[in-house]
Amino acid sequence: MKPRTPAMRLIALSAAALLLAGCAQKTDSTQADSTQGTAQRPADLTYASAQVERYSATPAFEPPGESFDAKKIMNQKLIYSVPVNGALDFTQMYKGAMERLASQVGFEFKTWQNGGKPTEWGQGIQAAVTAGADVIDLFAGIDPTQVVPQIAQAREKKIPIVASDTYDASQPPASSVDLAVNCPCADAARLMADWVAVKTKGDADVLVLTSSDVKASEAGEKAFKEEFARVCPDCRVTYIDIPSADWAGKIQPQVQSALVANPGLDYVLPIYDTMSIWASQAIKQAGRAGKVKIVTYNGTPSILKMMQEDDVIEMNVGQSNDWMAHVVLDQMMRRAGGLPANPKATWPLYVWTKANVAQAGSPPTDSQGYGDAYRQGFTKLWGLS
User: Fold this and answer.
1) What pLDDT digit, counting tens, does each position of 175-198 carry?
2) Nearest alpha carbon to residue 20 among 126, 125, 108, 146
3) What is the mean pLDDT of residues 61-79?
């Protein structure tokens, strides 16, 4: 995260709580794994280029199910959301989007404000049960295994538990969850590898920063390894695992050490773009700005602002938090109304670069630049127009 800019304030919160949220934590704090390129087949740059081109287009709306009467289903219903940390910009943007949608559809949406501790998540679930919630939304990384007694209380009241933006689409959710609305995290990792392969013509030296305590990271790291093997088998790729609680203290020195040890390093790939704040500082302080680029994922507005201000971050695989809120709500409403949910429902990705990042706004927001098709599409899908 330098002096206390808005991005730094986001990071100070993120490192301690974002995704620290209970996701399959490991005891080791950092770990490096190096994989040298050993080409067994040619780099598939044609495929990689096609993937970059595909995600460089404005995302199209694809309905996640049949249309239904949302106002009728949600009449007098309550969705109670327990986010991983209520103070994060990310969760605040989600909360604002959900509240806007609640006013349009006509139901009540409440958020349990918390500081990112499992005890607070449990208290939030208990509050939702007491309030008579119709759906409980565990948002952005809460590990259901850390709130088992409280989930059991909700189940006794037959209240559905939804895990939203916690798992990758390839990961099975915990058995205690009634519905999971999953992120396209592995697809984002593949796209990052595709970008690097295209930019270096299949010959790159890469440092990947992972974070094993975040539930979706396992799928992301697996996707990195598979995609590099396909599109850039000659690439030299090193992996460093830095749990989210250690981001503020360990990303910068770990990246600087890697830069000193490897003068040929071309790219740093933080699995989540909040990590880019410290990674970019390391690159600049090592005197490697202009030689080493960052490619990352999330499209966080404060990180897009960094892209507007300098050239260290070359590409960010973005996702609209507003679009995500629409998808999550769509699936929760279907569950509340006894309609079939779509286990493959997710939100699209979009390539942000220096060439188009101005479209994200000034300052950037979580919804600008992704088009309006999804808003119109969901309005029609829910019978609101």
Assistant:
1) 888 999 999 999 999 999 999 999
2) 146
3) 95
The pLDDT tens digits of the residues spanning 16-33 come to 333 333 333 333 445 566
Record the pTM: 0.82
| Model confidence at 85: pLDDT above 60 | yes
Residue 210 contacts residue 221 (beta carbons within 8 Å) = yes
Please give, one letter per residue, the 3-state secondary structure of the chain. Answer: CCCCCHHHHHHHHHHHHCCCCCCCCCCCCCEEEEECCCCCCCCCHHHHHHHHHHHCCCCCCCCCCCCCCHHHHHCCCEEEEEECCCCCHHHHHHHHHHHHHHHHHCCEEEECCCCCCHHHHHHHHHHHHHHCCCEEEEECCCCHHHHHHHHHHHHHCCCCEEEEEEEECCCCCCCCCCEEEEECHHHHHHHHHHHHHHHHCCCCEEEEEECCCCCCHHHHHHHHHHHHHHHCCCCEEEEEECCHHHHHHHHHHHHHHHHHHCCCCCEEEECCHHHHHHHHHHHHHCCCCCCCEEEEEECCHHHHHHHHHCCCEEEEEECCHHHHHHHHHHHHHHHHCCCCCCCCCCCCCEEEECCCHHHHECCECCCCCCCCHHHHHHHHHCCCC
Read off the pLDDT band of 246 (50, 70, 90): confident
pLDDT at 366 over 60: yes
Tokens of 294: 């960052």
